[in-house]
Specification:
The protein is α/β, with parallel strands linked by helices. It is built from eleven helices and ten strands. Helices cover about 45% and strands about 15% of the residues. Helix 2 runs parallel beside helix 4. The site of S-adenosylmethionine has 24 residues, from loops.
């Protein structure tokens, strides 16, 4: 049916995205914004319309849907949980690198790990958390740094919890296989000692994390804006380039929960463009660039 002139005008006014094969109205965009905020605490502002359109148009195509209204109907339906998960994966950024922000790993190696390894050698539990670990480069960089100081670390009660909301990135992380170009940032000596060549027939042929590295890391699906089942406090938390996508109120809550989850004088590493904010600020002292210490430096 040809729309009336007034309908066409209304459609143009309501349209959040010009052009393209699928209609995306502001109402659809608001539904997507609200769902992402409810599920993951992520705040998408209106400038993200083109990103939402381009990333989700692929989902509409795969599902054979005709417009975003039907897509929104699907994600809000009772059986829509799987697609909500796919939407989240499509709209989040998983960019990461081995030894990203190398000064954090220098700080870890020279200032924090010597004491923590000595504690673990005396039998004390040591726990490190990589929160929002994406495809695993961050927790494996922590594990490689630990092994460079204590090659038998896997025999100690020293473990890294690596968590993310997205099961797809966790599957890659668990496999621990990375193509050649991604491992360039790993120092050669570490690579040759703790990694091996991956089976050339496997999907991500290249390098494979060795047993000692993998033994140190436990991967878990966890929404930072949900409940945290962990009982033990952490001596160190890495949460880098994750909360940047949350609004201020959500960020403030997360900083406070991290402060509650650290041991006294525990350390928090955050992304280069992030700052601890809200009431928890006074509980931390700065201890170097984007590095904080509970109770002061
Ligand atoms: C840009 S990556 C950061 C990876 C790594 N921390 C780094 O700095 O290289 C952000 C990760 O945060 C995850 N993420 C986003 N919202 C989350 C949430 N509510 N709970 C847990 N992880 C979340 C994403 O799935 C993504 O893998």
């Amino acid at each position: 049916m040809t729309p009336h002139r007034s309908d066409t005008k209304l459609a143009a006014k309501d349209s959040a995205h010009e052009g393209g094969e699928y209609a995306l109205t502001w109402e659809d965009f608001r539904t997507i914004q609200a769902t992402l905020h409810e599920d993951a605490g992520i705040a998408l502002d209106d400038s993200k319309v083109p990103l939402v359109y381009s990333r989700l148009a692929k989902r509409l195509r795969a599902l054979g849907l005709e417009n975003f209204r039907d897509y929104c109907g699907l994600i809000l339906s009772q059986g829509g949980g799987d697609e909500r998960q796919r939407m989240l994966a499509a709209l989040t950024t998983n960019v990461t690198r081995f030894f990203r922000e190398p000064h954090h790993f220098d700080h870890l190696r020279t200032r924090l790990l010597p004491k923590l390894i000595a504690d673990a050698e005396r039998g004390a539990p040591v726990r490190i958390w990589s929160a929002g670990c994406s495809t695993g480069q961050e927790p494996y960089s922590i594990a490689l740094t630990i092994l460079s100081l204590q090659p038998k670390a896997a025999n100690l009660d020293l473990r890294i919890l690596a968590s993310d909301i997205d099961p797809n990135v966790l599957a890659v992380a668990r496999a621990g296989q990375y193509p050649d170009d991604l491992v360039d940032e790993i120092p050669r000596d570490m690579r040759s000692r703790w990694m091996g060549r991956a089976d050339a027939r496997s999907a991500r042929a290249g390098w494979q994390m060795g047993e000692d590295v993998r033994e140190l890391v436990r991967f878990r699906e966890l929404n930072l804006n949900g409940t945290w089942p962990m009982k033990r406090p952490f001596q160190i938390i890495f949460c880098r380039n994750v909360v940047i996508y949350f609004n201020e109120a959500t960020q403030a809550k997360i900083w406070a929960r991290f402060a509650d989850s650290l041991t006294p004088a525990g350390s928090l590493f955050i992304g280069h463009s992030e700052r601890v904010s809200g009431p928890a600020t006074s509980r931390f002292g700065t201890d170097g660039l984007t590095t904080y210490r509970l109770g002061g430096a």
